[in-house]
Amino acid sequence: MLFRSSIARNQIGYLELFLKNNPTLTSIERGTVEPYIQKSLENIRREVKILETILSSTKIENNRIQLTLSEIDCNELVKSSVEGMEEIAIAKGLVLKAETPDKPIICNTDKERLQEILFNLIDNAIKYTKEGSVTVKLEQDGDDVIFSVIDTGEGIPPEDIPNLGKKFFRSRMYLGSSGTGVNVVRPGGTGIGLFVVFGLAKLMNGKIEISSEVNKGSTFKLKLPIS
Fold first, then answer.
1. Beta strand 133-141 with 144-151: parallel, antiparallel or unpaired?
2. b vs e for 107-128, b when ≥16 Cβ sit within 10 Å of the residue's Cβ?
3. How many CA atoms lie within 13 A of 69 on its CB side?
4. Structure confidence by residue, pLDDT tens digits, 27-50
């Protein structure tokens, strides 16, 4: 699995270099080729994310994750996480933005695992939001740092919220009627992403809080101790 993930990452690098450093392409050729390359990049990035999420879930189940702690700038991490997911949001016509305080918030945690949590939460928010926005908000509350991912998506039924974070659990398959009597199917997913989010949050002495209203949106909050 690690081998496949490495190959996929190499493919991303080659395609990005092709777009940036290919002076032989005319503007017409670039306009023709670029949409297909961007679509390929999006698909490969999703494959990498799926592979890495499955790997993390296996490690969590077998207690094989070791945290590497260091002091990190949470403001910068939020901004880089948003930048990393921006193309996916733009492709859906969504606004993805970061809201961070003027003063940097420094915390002692595992940077790679924290970014994995944020990527999963942002990806979920984008997936289940048809229009509007996804906001990643950072704030400090006493000795805790709070990362909130807020969307204007379809929301989650209250009876499903207690089950979120269980492996392979997905909220209801149908979102309701399209007006023609045909059920609107919820976007696909495995339920592994939130399993990893909850597992990593627990390992990092943090917790996930969820608030949601059907047809109005959801907020996922990650609370972590600063030190």
1. antiparallel
2. bebbbebbbbbbbbbbbbbbbb
3. 10
4. 556 566 667 666 666 666 666 766
